[in-house]
Design a protein that fits this description.
Distance between the termini: 17 Å
Strand content: under 5%
Helix content: over 70%
Number of strands: 0
Structural class: mainly alpha
Order of helices and strands: HHHHHH
Length: 165
């Protein structure tokens, strides 16, 4: 009798199995591997460029290089976290990735607009601010979509668990 109960618990409802198949598919894992490699390689490339400069760089350049390295390492760490999980994340990875994208986009927009205001013309400031705002809106929409997908998957999981009990 105990074996029968264990077998029933291991059975994943078909609806949930289909919904989560895309979350743990090979293509999804390969996308995360590409994100991790891109972030890690970008950070390494900038670090090597910085290390091989023959003369000390200005403070602003060092700060920009450090920020770009931090962004690359953040994406690499994110991908490593996702790839190290062996079970469905119920779109938690999408939410975290969208938060990271929104944070980086917001900081980049603020820095770019500030630099344009200090050194550029009004048209350059407006162009930079508009482009940054458009990217922030896109990242914000991705975050809303990720939260929606996560809620949908958790709702489906909970309803199927209630049906099973």
């Amino acid at each position: 009798m105990s074996e029968h109960d264990d077998a029933e618990r291991r059975d994943v409802p078909k609806e949930l199995e289909r919904a989560l198949a895309a979350e743990v598919s090979l293509s999804a894992r390969m996308r995360h591997a590409c994100v991790g490699l891109a972030g890690g390689c970008g950070a390494a490339l900038i670090a090597v460029l910085w290390a091989t400069e023959p003369h000390p760089l200005p403070a602003r350049t060092r700060a920009a290089f450090a920020a770009l390295i931090a962004v690359g390492l953040a994406w690499a760490a994110f991908a490593g976290w996702v790839l190290s999980r062996r079970r469905p994340l119920y779109a938690r990875d999408r939410v975290l990735g969208a938060r990271l994208a929104l944070t980086v986009t917001t900081l980049t927009c603020a820095a770019g607009t500030t630099l344009a205001a200090l050194r550029g013309t009004t048209a350059e400031v407006l162009t930079t601010a508009f482009a940054g705002t458009a990217l922030m809106v896109a990242a914000g929409l991705l975050l809303l979509r990720a939260h929606s997908r996560r809620r949908e998957l958790l709702r489906l999981r909970n309803s199927l668990q209630e049906k099973a009990n």
